[in-house]
Amino acid sequence: MKKLLILTAALLFGLVACSDTATAPDAIGYKIDELSNLPGYGWFQEEYNLYDVDTNKINTIRQVFNPQEFKIIYFTRPSCSCPGSHKSFPAINKILNEAGVPIENMEFYSLNSLKSRHPYDSLFQLSYLPSFVIMKNGKAIYSVIDTLNYNVYYGIEYPRKYEDLLIEGFKK
Description:
Layout: H1 2-18, E1 28-30, H2 44-50, H3 55-64, E2 70-76, H4 88-98, E3 106-110, E4 131-136, E5 139-143, H5 144-153, H6 162-170
Parallel strand pairs: 2-3
Antiparallel strand pairs: 1-3, 2-4, 4-5
């Protein structure tokens, strides 16, 4: 009985000691041309260069994107250790650059965790990092990564490419 009590106490202590109840530091806003100066983003340029944009979709993005209505908010994590998902940030940035989306229609925030506070906390909660939220007239209308993950989870074939997801979001 004494061993069971000690084991239970040790497990409870371990759970409490390992819980992440502390708040994370606030998001850091940055400009994309400052990214190379931020620690933990050394991988970005290589992944940006490697992404092969579907040029057949670029004209459609140009047609559906209205700079008077839309803004894209990027939420990224330095030194992203999420295999595969870190490629979405440079890929989406490259697609929007090639489509001619003005930099004024993009905001970038670096977060250490999903608990980090950001300027849009009152409008929506992030589910993943990185995340890309399309805003229309100041309202969050579409999350690229949430939609992609939903489609993959439920076996939905379309859309799964970043270009298609952006087009879908800009058509909302």
